[in-house]
Protein 1
Amino acid sequence: MAKFTETKATLDDIATRSEANRKRLESAIQLIATAEADLAAMPTVYGAFVTQLNTDAAASPNDAAWTNAKAEKDQIVADFQALKIRATALATAVAGG
């Protein structure tokens, strides 16, 4: 049979570790929410730039610099869209917790 003091110490350890992990999870949830909100705002901030880049690249189809800039933009936009989907999925998954 365990001594009461050992039992109480173990219970306190469990409670302390659980609370520390609760705080970590709450921080992670807040970070996910912040990232999701920032990603949601990005199209408003950069939409006009993306549109103008597309227009400029279309106006100069034989200019390698514009072609490369558009290709880079296309990759960034694809990565952004995948990240936004992931952030939304994570935020949705943790919202009920």
Note: The mean pLDDT is 95.
Protein 2
Amino acid sequence: MLKAKKCEIQIKRMNTEKHGMWKEGIDRVREIVEWTDIMLKFKPDLEFSADNPEEHMAKSYPLRFARQKELAERAGMGDMNGYINIAGLAQTAFNNPKTLALMKKENTMINQFNKEE
């Protein structure tokens, strides 16, 4: 009798788990459909390719590093290791010829960043 009760409880737990997985699967499929619709709607207006997630990096990363470097200098260097990391990333990004060409083409913050150094 006790063994049957344990099996019954185990079956109920497994059914509950199965139902939760089913609900999560439905939700994930819904998200995929919605994001696909959103991407198709905005695809003509995208600045970068929707198919290559790395395409934006040559523009967005150097800008991010420059902004982080500026904020770190304004706020003070409480986190020296963090500042060194950001400064190194910014220097690497701004020494990349492809990045410099893209930023010149996009007429972004390159002149301001070079003046600070």
Note: The chain is about 80% helix and 0% strand.
